[in-house]
Design a protein that fits this description.
CATH superfamily: P-loop containing nucleotide triphosphate hydrolases
Number of helices: 5
Shape: elongated
Strand content: 35-45%
Largest sheet: 4 strands, antiparallel
Mean pLDDT: 82
Order of helices and strands: EEHEHHEHEEHEE
Number of domains: 1
Low-confidence stretches: 1-11
Radius of gyration: 21 Å
CATH topology: Rossmann fold
Structural class: alpha+beta
Strand order of the largest sheet: 1-8-7-4
Oligomer: single chain
Helix content: 25-40%
Number of strands: 8
CATH architecture: 3-Layer(aba) Sandwich
CATH class: Alpha Beta
Distance between the termini: 13 Å
Length: 157
């Protein structure tokens, strides 16, 4: 995996991959994920969508997975529900929303000099951006390091 700023090159992580996780998702696997963190091992759990996880165990299983993982690689999601959920998981940031008042005089529109500015929250990665990701592109978030970026993923074959 390559990133815009070489984010992962600087980290020496022990990784264990679990592909098609929804096939063997269980409380036993969650116990393994929890214990691996104390051994300084990062487990990579992969599934096509968060919806796949809802089939496992019980209704809380998806939330348990989200709570127990600190690193996320999010590829394109076709579902509006899943892309919205991922956008919420990846987080928001503070920004200033500025508005300007316009007025009509004759046939022309001009600024009145009035407006407002307020502090608001916006998605770091908007659901529409998640739905529009091209093949081989993803958003990466590490709660371990507090970093996030867009990444390009290259297949090894």
């Amino acid at each position: 995996m390559t990133t815009k700023n070489g984010l992962y090159r600087a980290h020496k992580l022990k990784l264990q991959r679990f592909w098609r996780r929804n096939v063997y998702a269980s409380s036993v696997l969650m116990d393994l994920v929890n214990k691996s963190r104390s051994a300084n091992v990062t487990c990579i759990l992969a599934t096509q969508s968060l919806s796949d996880l809802s089939k496992a165990e019980d209704d809380n299983f998806t939330q348990q997975v989200i709570e127990n993982c600190n690193n996320y690689i999010v590829l394109r999601q076709n579902s509006a529900v899943n892309s919205e959920q991922w956008a919420n998981i990846l987080g928001t940031r503070s920004t200033m929303e500025v508005t300007y008042q316009l007025g009509q005089q004759g046939g022309a529109t001009a600024e009145t000099g009035l407006g407002s500015a307020k502090l608001v929250r916006e998605f770091i990665y908007h659901p529409d951006d998640i739905k529009a990701l091209k093949q081989g592109r993803a958003f990466f978030l590490s709660r371990d390091s507090g970093q996030h970026c867009r990444v390009d993923i290259h297949k090894p074959f």
